[in-house]
TrEMBL record:
The lineage of its organism: Bacteria, Bacillati, Actinomycetota, Actinomycetes, Micrococcales. The keyword Nucleotide-binding applies. Its main location: cytoplasm. Keywords: ATP-binding, Cytoplasm, Glutamine amidotransferase, Hydrolase, Ligase, Nucleotide-binding, Purine biosynthesis. Pfam families: GATase_5. Part of the phosphoribosylformylglycinamidine synthase complex involved in the purines biosynthetic pathway. Catalyzes the ATP-dependent conversion of formylglycinamide ribonucleotide (FGAR) and glutamine to yield formylglycinamidine ribonucleotide (FGAM) and glutamate. The FGAM synthase complex is composed of three subunits. PurQ produces an ammonia molecule by converting glutamine to glutamate. PurL transfers the ammonia molecule to FGAR to form FGAM in an ATP-dependent manner. It is found in: Cytoplasm. Pathway: Purine metabolism; IMP biosynthesis via de novo pathway; 5-amino-1-(5-phospho-D-ribosyl)imidazole from N(2)-formyl-N(1)-(5-phospho-D-ribosyl)glycinamide: step 1/2. It catalyses: N(2)-formyl-N(1)-(5-phospho-beta-D-ribosyl)glycinamide + L-glutamine + ATP + H2O = 2-formamido-N(1)-(5-O-phospho-beta-D-ribosyl)acetamidine + L-glutamate + ADP + phosphate + H(+); L-glutamine + H2O = L-glutamate + NH4(+). One of its GO terms (molecular function) is glutaminase activity. Part of the FGAM synthase complex composed of 1 PurL, 1 PurQ and 2 PurS subunits. NCBIfam families: FGAM_synth_I (TIGR01737), PRK03619.1 (NF002957). Its EC number is 6.3.5.3, 3.5.1.2. This is Phosphoribosylformylglycinamidine synthase subunit PurQ.
Length: 234
């Protein structure tokens, strides 16, 4: 039976269909879930996609973190289900206190869209097992409020526990403290990051590489990783 990965759509989600496509390309079954539901439909993993949920009013991800389905997301995450928050989804995870820290306005004050090099710092999470520690990958980035912040104490703990999963390389695009692009919870089943792996899964539609234009597929390993994780737990 194929791994079933739920992708939750919130009012203002933009990348939910892209995430569903990435799941399908990786070999799993995408399951469309609605923010107003309390039913996770028996999925094996969850993705909170990018976009501008509820128009990013109040704070990015703040209102979405109180959506009905988030009650089930929090419970599932706490029970060990793999959960990935991408961009706006990362913001939701911090607002729901499934991940520490927060995301604020880019330090240069502008929306940014670029292909971003990341260094993989942790391959022990549900979403990174198909990477290699220290590997550089290129993933599209697009955000206006992607600056990761936390107290020095929290940052030291994240570093010390190996919970910084991705770090920006060459340039820090949004002023994130310690160049942090993505983190995990203590258990490693919940991961949030600002760049968009779902936009780097299919040749012809990904970042440019030395091989060919638009040929980058570094994001695919996120989705194959969670398939391997769920199959290993069966």
């Amino acid at each position: 039976m194929a791994t079933r990965v739920g992708v939750i759509t919130f009012p203002g989600s933009l990348d939910d269909r892209d995430a569903q496509r990435a799941v399908r390309i990786a070999g799993a079954e995408p399951v469309a879930l609605w923010h107003g539901s309390h039913d996770l439909e028996g999925v094996d993993a969850l993705i909170l996609p990018g976009g501008f949920s509820y128009g990013d009013y109040l704070r990015c991800g703040a209102i979405a973190s109180l959506s009905p389905i988030m009650t089930e997301v929090v419970a599932a995450a706490n029970s060990g289900m793999p959960v990935l928050g991408i961009c706006n989804g990362f913001q939701m995870l911090t607002e729901a206190h499934l991940l520490e820290g927060g995301l604020i306005r880019n330090d240069h004050g502008s929306f940014i869209c670029r292909d971003q090099v990341l260094r993989v710092e942790n391959t022990d999470t549900s979403w990174t097992r198909d990477f290699e520690t220290g590997e550089n990958i290129t993933i599209p980035l697009k955000n206006g409020e992607g600056g990761f912040i936390a107290s020095d104490e929290t940052l030291d703990r994240l570093e010390g526990e190996g919970r910084v999963v991705f770090r920006y390389v060459d340039v820090n695009p949004n002023g994130s403290l310690r160049d942090i692009a993505g983190i995990s919870n203590e258990r490693g089943n919940v991961v949030g990051l600002m760049p968009h792996p779902e936009h780097a899964v299919e040749p012809g539609f990904g970042p440019d590489t030395d091989v060919a234009m638009r040929s980058g597929v570094d994001g695919l390993a996120f989705f194959t990783s969670v398939i391997q994780r769920t199959l290993a737990s069966v």
